[in-house]
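Good day; I would like, with your permission, to put a structural problem before you. What I wish to show you is a protein chain and, alongside it, a tokenised description of its three-dimensional fold. Thank you for your consideration; the sequence and its tokens are set out here:
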Amino acid sequence: MLRDLAETYRRVLGPDNDATLNCWNDLAVFYVDFDQWDKVEEILREAFETERRLHGPEHEQTRVTMSRLAGVASHRGRYLQAIALNEEVLRVEHQNPSWYTPEVLASLAADYYALAEYQKAVERQTEQVELLRRFNGSQDPRTLKASGFLAHLYGAMGQWTRSAGLYREIT
């Protein structure tokens, strides 16, 4: 039914209409719930290419779709592709300081961790923790969870003292 709605949007409003693109993005999110990753990726890739052509890479919707594509790549074990996409999202977000990027930083840290690139993972996770502390405070559940993953990363690198110290801070 949602696919029929998306097709109707495309037919009536045209494939380059923002409402059409939003509807297709919603359809991709719907397919995630049903574990239909080929469809998710196909829809997001098409939406991303259209958004980039229409609005450029700095547009908010282009950035959101690029981040979703990175999530699909990560879910499918294509960590290098996910990292490349999310590093680009982060580059664009850094051009606008009002954009809040903890999720992108967390995704990058997790993908670097999956590739056993622990130092890069620590760098991105540290950025995330600092950002969360600045916006949410040090006792916010999201900050504590992010700090816990940072402590885990220090442990993975054999930095037990730093890991234990950070765990003590958050418990």
Summary: The chain has a mean pLDDT of 93. The first helix runs from residue 2 to 13. The chain has nine helices and no strands. The CA atoms of residues 73 and 104 lie 14 Å apart.
